[in-house]
């Protein structure tokens, strides 16, 4: 099993989430799928729901079945853990987030039989629910499909 240098799925997800809307989109390997979006909330479940809804709406994961949704959920929770520094709680700790997200699905290995993986990157702000009291944050989660 060899990770292909040009197919680092986490790197592609981070580049997508960091690029501004005015920038030209990065090129992904053939047959990879991706989508981006935004979410702001004081509830971590709302963040999870927004990302899951986008992934289903854009055809990144199938709408029926459990396996792909479960893989996406774990990638989201890993990314959210990075954003929240290990405590995946928002409103109960009096903090809120304003995040951009990128979801990327593809095979990062040279061997096709390794199958697809999914990466979720989050970038934005976190802080007290008072404008001006936030700071930047970033998180990344990667899981096999």
From TrEMBL:
- What Gene Ontology biological process does one annotation of this record name? L-histidine metabolic process
Q: Which residues form a coiled coil?
A: none
Task: Write the protein's name.
Answer: Hut operon positive regulatory protein
Q: Which domain of life is it from?
A: Bacteria
Complex and partners:
Homohexamer.
Q: Which UniProt keywords apply?
A: Activator, Histidine metabolism, RNA-binding, Transcription, Transcription regulation
The UniProt GO MF terms for this protein read: mRNA binding
SUPFAM superfamilies attached to this UniProt entry: Hut operon positive regulatory protein HutP (SSF111064)
Q: Which HAMAP family match?
A: HutP
Entries under NCBIfam families matching the protein: PRK03065.1
Its function? Antiterminator that binds to cis-acting regulatory sequences on the mRNA in the presence of histidine, thereby suppressing transcription termination and activating the hut operon for histidine utilization.
RNA-binding listed as a keyword: yes
Family of the protein in this entry: Belongs to the HutP family.
